[in-house]
Amino acid sequence: MADHGASRPAALRFALPCDLSHVRHASQTVHQFLTEQGCGDDLLSACDLALVEACNNAIKYASESARKRPVVVEVTCGPERFELRVTDHTPGFEWPEKVDLPPPESESGRGLFLIHSLMDSAHYLRGRDENILVMRKSRPDVGQRNGSPPRIDNDRLISGLIEELSSCYETLSAIFRYGGEQGSGKDLKKFAHRLLSDLAGIVGADWFVFRSAQNHSHIEVLTASESALDTASIIYRGENSDATFLEAQAAILRKPIWFGGNGALSAADPLRLKLHAHGIVYPVFVGDELTGTLAIGKNGKRFQTEEQRAFTTS
After folding, report:
1. What is the mean pLDDT of residues 220-226?
2. What's the CA dihedral at 287, 100, 108, 224 to 10 degrees?
3. Residue 58 lies in a domain
4. Residues 166, 303: one domain?
């Protein structure tokens, strides 16, 4: 007899070619599915980042023969929580009982820590022919499920993801903080570039630049999406400061600064290199200490939203 009081969770399953160029489309597919289920911004941003990291690893560590087999992504979304499953064909590994942030000089382990920080739980089921990473997260937005799915545009998603980076796990900021230290800068620049490239790909941004704080008065480029954005240091405090630059303002005011077009940029602002761009400059902190600033944007003309104007005028 059918149980008319029971409901089945919504489900999505698809095969992802074992190629890094397909990861962004996979993330967008899952993002759209969860949006249709009424999931909120915070949950969406955590899912986006965790899924990209999981898929990247599933592809990166696949052998030449295993690259002929797809990575399988499965999502189930119920009223209380959702579950992500990523099936890979790599040799697999032993998931540690405790996932800690690795030391700055380490070239691996940060991905596991990222997933562990974003999800409520994560388990890795290792088999002979395939392995399954199971990630679960509860839905604090369950009150939205009877209403219309929220509309997510690029600007709000960019803001949400950057807030996730700064507020959900301060240890990520700690990684960037060590970017200018002797002996660790090269590896950390590579890691920062990879992570921010993933972020830009998720939200459809065209460019980014992360500046790390130096000597409590300067911020200098740790990594950027293109060489043209790798410009000179910005002085945000003291004499001869570049106080009119948006990245300096974000550091001084300790709040996000939205921008759109060249109207809000001074003639010498490094971000003016991106004609008619719109986006956000976000200050990143470890506790109360400024770690740096992240500018991320999209090319082309676009009017500011009310949310953007509130940020820039408040």
Report:
1. 91
2. -10
3. yes
4. yes
Question: What distance in Å separates the CA atoms of residue 95 and residue 105, rounded to the nearest whole number?
Answer: 21
The CATH number given to whatever domain includes residue 59 is 3.30.565.10
As for how many domains the chain has, the answer is 2
In a domain, 81, yes or no: yes
Non-local (6+) Cβ contacts of 255 within 8 A are 283, 311, 314
- Cβ neighbours for 206, distance < 8 A, ≥ 6 positions apart: 200, 225, 274, 277, 297, 298, 299
Contact 170, 210 (CB under 8 A): no
Same-domain check for residues 218 and 308: yes
Residue 241 burial by Cβ neighbours in a 10 Å radius (0-12, 13-18, 19+): middle
Of 109, 144, 179, which residue sits at a domain end? 144
Q: How far apart are CA 274 and CA 173, in angstroms?
A: 26
Q: What is the pLDDT of residues 147-174, one digit of tens each?
A: 444 333 444 544 444 444 444 334 444 4
Query: Between vectors from CA 208 to CA 214 and to CA 277, what angle results, nearest 5°?
Result: 120
- 313 contacts 288 by C-beta, under 8 angstroms: no
How far is Cα 158 from Cα 137, in angstroms, rounded to an integer?
21
Cα separation of 239 and 228, whole Å? 27
Close Cβ partners of 235 (under 8 Å, ≥ 6 residues apart): 217, 218, 241, 242, 248
Predicted TM-score (pTM) of the model is: 0.54
Going across the sheet that includes 71-77, the strands are 10-16, 71-77, 81-88, 131-138, 121-126
Of 65 and 308, the one with more pLDDT: 65
- Tens digit of pLDDT for each residue in 203-213? 677 899 999 88
pLDDT confidence tier of residue 126, bands split at 50, 70 and 90: very high
Tokens of 131: 């392995």
Which structure tokens are listed for 67? 């690259």
> What is the DSSP secondary-structure string of 109-167?
SHHHHHHHHHSSEEEEEE-SS-EEEEEEEE-TTGGGTTSPPPP--HHHHHHHHHHHHHH
Its domain, for residue 115, covers 10-144
